[in-house]
Amino acid sequence: MSDDSWEMAPPPFNADSALQTMKRFARDQRVLAERGEGWMMGADVVLKLSVDGVVVKVQLAKRPARTPEWDAFTLKSATELRKLQDEIKRRLTRWKDEE
């Protein structure tokens, strides 16, 4: 038997591509509208996205408010990106239910 491993390295993380993926994802949620500094739900900014070198910096509001408290995330892999998308979906669902 051969000791060949079938493990494959994930593709390198591309921050610019990940930023575009996050923007598409936010647009697809239908309740978020892109405005200059970020993404708004109604009149409140709830999501901010930016590229910082080789990572994507994300600020996600704990709850919609004029001056929200922010949770900060740094995306360095496709796995982190998918986890954040799931978290955004959970929060949007919770916020819609609370209205």
Calculate Rg over CA atoms.
16 Å
- Helix/sheet category: alpha+beta
Strand arrangement in the largest pleated sheet: 1-2-3-4-5
Instruction: Please write the string of helix (H) and strand (E) elements.
Output: HEEEEEH
What does the average pLDDT come to?
A: 91
State the oligomer: single chain
Number of strands: 5
Largest sheet: 5 strands, antiparallel
Spatial gap, N to C terminus: 61 Å
- Please count the helical segments: 2
Short summary:
This protein is an alpha+beta fold and 99 residues long. Helix content is 35%, strand content 29%.
Describe this structure in words.
Helices cover 35% and strands 29% of the residues. With 99 residues, it is an alpha+beta fold. It has one domain (15-98). A five-stranded antiparallel beta sheet has the order 1-2-3-4-5, with helices on one face. It is elongated. The model has no long low-confidence stretch (mean pLDDT 91).
Offer a few descriptive terms.
single chain, elongated, 2 helices, 5-stranded antiparallel sheet, alpha+beta, 99 residues
Write the layout of secondary structure elements.
Layout: H1 15-28, E1 33-35, E2 38-41, E3 44-52, E4 55-61, E5 70-75, H2 78-98
Antiparallel strand pairs: 1-2, 2-3, 3-4, 4-5
